[in-house]
Amino acid sequence: MLWSHEALGVQVLLSEGGGVRLGAPGAEWDSLVPLVEVVATGHGREWSGERSVDSAIGARMRHQGHLLDRQDGWDRLRVRLDDPLTGLSAEVELSTRAELPVLRSRVRLRNDGTTALRIESVSTLTLGGLGAPADFDLHWADNDWLAELRWRQAPLREQLVDLDRSAGGHDGRGCFERSSRGSWSTAGSLPLGVLTERGTGRSWAWQVESSVGWRYELGERRRSAYLVLGGPDDARHHWSCLLAPGEEFTTVPAALAVVPSGGPEAAFGVLTGYRRLLRRPHPDLDALPVIYNDYMNTLMGDPSSERLLPLIEAAGRAGAEYFVIDAGWYDDDALGWWDSVGAWEAAERRFPGGLQLVLDAIRAHGMVPGLWLEPEVVGVRSPIARSLPEEAFFQRGGVRVTEHGRHHLDLRHPAARAHLDAVVDRIVDDWGVGYFKFDYNINAGPGTDVDGQSPGAGLLGHHRAHLAWLESVLDRHPGLVLENCGSGGLRMDYAQLAVAQLQSTSDQENFLCYPPIAAAAPTAVTPEQSAVWAYPQPEFSDDENAFVLAGAMLGRIHLSGFLDRMTGDQQALVAEGVAAYKAIRADLPGTLPFWPLGLPGWEDEWLALGLRGDGATYLTVWRRPAPDGAPGSAPQAARHRTLAVPHLSGLGVHAQVVHPAATAGSVHWDDELGELTVELPHAPQAVVVRLAAD
Questions:
Q1: How many CB atoms lie within 10 A of CB 98?
Q2: CA angle 649, 655, 659 (to 5 degrees)
Q3: Dihedral over Cα of 305, 307, 310, 315: its sign
Q4: 85: which DSSP letter?
Q5: Residue 654: count of CB within 10 angstroms of its CB
Q6: How much of the chain is helix, strand and coil, in % rounded to 5?
Q7: Do the beta carbons of residue 678 and residue 640 sit within 8 Å?
Q8: Keywords in UniProt for this one (predicted)?
Q9: Alpha-carbon distance 388 to 419, whole Å?
């Protein structure tokens, strides 16, 4: 054995022949998979199929040495492997921290041979010997526009057919897999999942940290489950990498969290702590200022001085601390702005006297101004599409990529970066803007082959250049706040969120559909980065306005709505909600999520999200109209739900409704049982509850 980690319950094993594998203690060698799986042209698999395991190079890799050291608070094991046939070497870096049961991995390949190798796939992390698939439940998340973060559960054995190996003696050719598609990293699925052992609650949770290609795979080897995490590959992402002698390639990172009990909830808690370690430090992550954004169900991309000034005044009265002018502020074209973006100059016809007057009004009402920007795209009618060189854009076969009226910048090119640097510096330095909502509204497909390599390699190169550009923006403007938006939540990954301060969770406009998204958001995003729309409206009832505000209170409030058209009582309700959030927000950055009613279902009538902190526990409880039901009162039996909060049992806490200030609902805490009973007599209705001993 080379290495073991007691808290994680994994070990690195070395065979007499020099093979190296990562697995659970006690697992049989044959149930494990090689520490690195590599497919190269001319060196495929030893057992053909959809799986990424059983690669010829992976089977040949042999241990050449290893090193234990410590860097930036992480304990590192670096294992060096060589393939004697091709000369390909791999350094597998496994990083852990004493206080957190997480294993982070990445792999560096180097061609130490004499002949170029075209790499078609390489794993970032492999783990075998988990146990019989019949003993596990699998949890994964579907993720689509307006319907993000939809968690599903099924027995692992339903996904991995039980094949009778007694006759043929072979493992199957298939597996359970999820992967990205194109340049929206989370369009379709999230790059994370959980495997839970029935009975014990022991769980393995994982995430792949890539904004471009990623894949995870669960399969069966010698009647035991295995897991493989990786970045882009040839079959799914049009990615391959030609390594000439002496050249290197490093995979995207991936992480594995292991908890001995507590199931997915405990695993998500560990991932939450891990994500906080990954992030770039920023004051916003502690202050959690309230953001008003004029877009959602309000101006919808059609701002002007006339429309904005009343909203600015109303948002300031409500207690907002940032005011973001969303899409359309640059639209000075009768043909529309969608395919003309790129120069990012304010539209004169929208802002008589200049946009600066509006930005000054935002500051005069005590708020920091922000603007929407979609930096990676250039409209086909934009002058920037003609002024930048061809090589500054994505291309395929010498033709510039065009998608939904836009071209895509390639940030590996200095002219593309210089253009965006000039835009950002002008807006920040000259206009005094302190917040950018960086959106991303096209899927550019597999990437660009402008550099002569594969499209997927071009996309990965752009992705890494994009992250470096974001870092450079914050280096120059350390107080600037960056929101990561990809048509809502279609680029919701911790490559982006290690740099950006906030994540847009959805573009969902129906307030009754938002609760399952808001409730599930902490599975993928730390609460203090989770931006949830709260769009109260003058035509809403008080219950409805309180409902939309409640949905954002255990994350980041993205306030919107026609606050300027509300009655005085309605405006007071919004201001009360914002004040309630400000009273609790200092507690949120240290909390861990839990779900007393289970992970939310898309059509659930009752939903609950909890955040557990050192001094207090917070719960948001929603009641929606039953599917196909009309809003209104419910029979007495349907008005109540009891939520188990066992970690507070017997501690003498009491329950306080922190929002709304006036409600027809009620809460009752049973300290002996550790249960909170919530009564919500109407639908829709929601409450935010604080449980604490003080």
A1: 10
A2: 140
A3: negative
A4: T
A5: 12
A6: 25, 35, 40
A7: yes
A8: Glycosidase, Hydrolase
A9: 9
List b or e across 501-539, with b for residues whose CB sees 16 or more CB atoms inside 10 angstroms.
bbbbbbbbeebeebbbbbbbbbbbbbbbbbbbbbbbbee
CB 341 within 8 A of CB 438: no
Cβ–Cβ < 8 Å for 22, 127: yes
What SS3 state is found at 424?
A: helix
- Which pLDDT belongs to residue 694? 75
Q: Does the N-terminal peptide bond of residue 684 adopt cis geometry, omega within 30 degrees of 0? A: yes
Rounded CA-CA distance 385/401 in Å is 12
Q: Supply the pLDDT for residue 169.
A: 67
Say whether pLDDT at 630 is over 60: no
**Mean pLDDT calculated for residue range 432-458:** 96
Is residue 462 within 8 A of residue 483, CB to CB? The reply is no
Q: pLDDT tens digits, residue range 94-152?
A: 999 989 999 999 999 999 999 999 999 999 999 999 999 999 999 999 999 999 999 99
- Asked if 371 and 355 count as a contact pair (C-beta separation under 8 A), the reply is no
Q: Which helix (H) or strand (E) holds 578?
A: helix 568-584
Nearest to 529 by CA among 462, 593, 433, 441: 593
Rounded CA-CA distance 694/670 in Å is: 16
User: Given the structure tokens 């309230």, which residue do they identify?
Assistant: 290
Residue 47: Cβ-neighbour burial (10 angstroms; 0-12, 13-18, 19+): middle
pLDDT tens string 182-221: 999 999 999 999 999 999 999 999 999 999 999 999 999 9
Strands 203-208 and 88-97: unpaired
